[in-house]
TrEMBL record:
Chain positions found as N6-(pyridoxal phosphate)lysine: K267
Pfam families assigned to the protein according to its UniProt record, in alphabetical order: Aminotran_3
Highest taxon listed in the record's lineage: Bacteria
Classification via PANTHER family: GLUTAMATE-1-SEMIALDEHYDE 2,1-AMINOMUTASE, GLUTAMATE-1-SEMIALDEHYDE 2,1-AMINOMUTASE 1, CHLOROPLASTIC-RELATED
The encoding gene: hemL
Record's catalysed reaction(s): (S)-4-amino-5-oxopentanoate = 5-aminolevulinate
Catalytic class of the enzyme: isomerase
EC number: 5.4.3.8
Coiled coil segments of this chain: none
Cofactor(s) of this protein: pyridoxal 5'-phosphate
Source organism: Dokdonia genika
Similarity comment: Belongs to the class-III pyridoxal-phosphate-dependent aminotransferase family. HemL subfamily.
Subcellular location, record wording: Cytoplasm
Pathway assigned to this chain's UniProt record: Porphyrin-containing compound metabolism; protoporphyrin-IX biosynthesis; 5-aminolevulinate from L-glutamyl-tRNA(Glu): step 2/2
Protein name per UniProt: Glutamate-1-semialdehyde 2,1-aminomutase
Length: 428
């Protein structure tokens, strides 16, 4: 049995950790089988507890854009750690990374660092509510903004009714302030504004979605949301936790030339340490404590190790922006190879891609929102996932996740992956 030690570790973990994991997707629930336990990682590869080497297409769900254990990032963390790991007092490095982030991303003057993407999005919504004096938000089905209560909401019974909790523990009181629309559907957003005049504080979305596979905004969608927000006095929040510092230096705002009011970050911005951030123009950020009345805080926020990793990562991306082109080229190469292999096998599929994000859906129709993503054949995906894993290729253990390429991947790795897809596709 090739996963013997991982399976043993999973049994032990389940005795003391709910479901054996500290974040649900890791448990392989949607693909079946036991999760792989990682021992270490370097560059484009994971090394598991059973001594296998895997080509990694998750990159810790995005952060490791330059590959695992990237030397400048590791060196920065090691050096900082020797000088103390947390003070709960201001440090110079926080200003340094803030200055760099503000210079890289369009339209932001100030940034506040937090410890996760969840915190960033939760705080961004509180800030939007505090700034606008309104309580409701619009989110899109299938977009994930972390696990804070306002986001764990599913659509109500009618298109323009209130949302309802999709996890026990989320109150109906909270749910009524989150309105749901389908991704890429401007008409529904218009209807929500019309049904809730003067009540909507903000629209929050992943401007390129990565939590229902990779889904691109349709032509005019982001611009249309910008206009609807302006007409209705609402703020536009781009959740760039996945896309920020990945699709371009300045994220989707730069790539698609649409300006949001508040932007959230996570993943790449922390170089693999627990970091999130939210940013906006000074007029909005000045509402935040201690400058303004909107409360937000964190004992470990701006932690020196996290800031050191983040600063090393952003510095490298800022100085070597050709990384984004290199990643885009590699992803396109992979796309073409996978497309050819799957086409030859006759399996029904569709591939979505932008920059270094790509997803393979076993669906007939174009995948443009949560419903079309959900129409994919999950049984085929499971076989695909386990087939690739047996070949030493690790993709996300869920049909609803994007793959994230890292720049340590070589063309040989990509060819090996394409060959594995060709082999596995014959079994689908
Ligand atoms: N927003 C997006 C777009 C995400 O993909 C995620 C996490 N995958 C989050 C927010 C939440 O981030 P975290 O898991 O760091 O809380």
């Amino acid at each position: 049995m090739i996963y013997k030690r991982s399976s043993e570790l999973f049994v032990a973990a389940q005795k003391v950790i709910p479901g054996g994991v500290n974040s649900p997707v890791r448990a392989f629930k949607s693909v079946g089988g036991d999760p792989i336990f990682v021992k270490e990682a370097k560059g484009a590869y994971l090394y598991d507890e059973d001594g296998r080497k895997l080509i990694d297409y998750i990159a810790s769900w995005g952060p490791m854009i330059l590959g695992h254990a990237h030397k400048p990032v590791v060196d920065a963390v090691v050096q900082k750690a020797q000088k103390g790991t947390s003070f709960g007092m201001p440090t110079e490095i926080e200003t340094k990374i803030a200055e760099l982030a503000v210079s890289m991303v369009p339209g932001i003057d100030k940034i506040r660092f937090v410890n996760s993407g969840t915190e960033a999005c939760m705080s961004a919504v509180r800030l939007a509510r505090g700034f606008s004096g309104r309580e409701k938000i619009i989110k899109f089905a299938g977009c994930y903004h972390g696990h804070s209560d306002s986001f764990l909401i599913q659509a109500g019974s009618g298109a323009v009714t209130f949302g309802s909790p999709n996890s026990p523990g989320v109150t109906t009181g909270t749910a009524k302030d989150t309105l749901l629309a389908d991704y890429n559907n401007l008409e529904q957003v218009k209807a929500l504004f019309a049904a809730n005049p003067g009540e909507i504080a903000a629209i929050i979305l992943e401007p390129v979605a990565g939590n229902m596979g990779c889904i691109l905004p349709a032509e005019g969608f982001l611009q249309g949301l910008r206009e609807l927000c302006d007409e209705n006095g609402a703020l536009l929040i781009f959740d760039e936790v996945m896309t920020g510092f990945r699709l371009a230096k300045g994220g989707v705002q730069e790539l698609m030339d649409v300006q949001a009011d508040i932007v959230t970050f996570g993943k790449v911005i922390g170089g693999g340490l627990p970091v999130g951030a939210f940013a906006a123009r000074a007029e909005i950020m000045s509402h935040l404590a201690p400058e303004g009345p909107v409360y937000q805080a964190g004992t470990l926020s701006g932690n020196p190790l996290a800031m050191a990793a983040g600063l090393a990562m952003l510095t490298e991306l800022n100085e070597n922006p050709e990384v984004f082109t290199s990643l885009k080229d590699k992803t396109e190469y992979l796309h073409k190879g996978i497309e050819q292999a799957l086409t030859e096998s006759g399996v029904i599929f569709t591939i979505n891609r932008l920059g270094s994000m790509i997803s393979v859906h076993f669906a007939k129709e174009a995948v443009v929102d949560f419903k079309t993503a959900a129409a994919g054949d999950n049984d085929t995906f499971k076989k695909f996932f386990h087939g690739l894993l047996a070949e030493g290729i690790y993709i996300a253990p869920s049909a609803y996740e994007s793959w994230f390429l890292n720049d340590a991947l070589s063309y040989q790795d990509l060819d090996d992956t394409i060959a594995a897809v060709a082999k596995v596709s014959k079994t689908l």
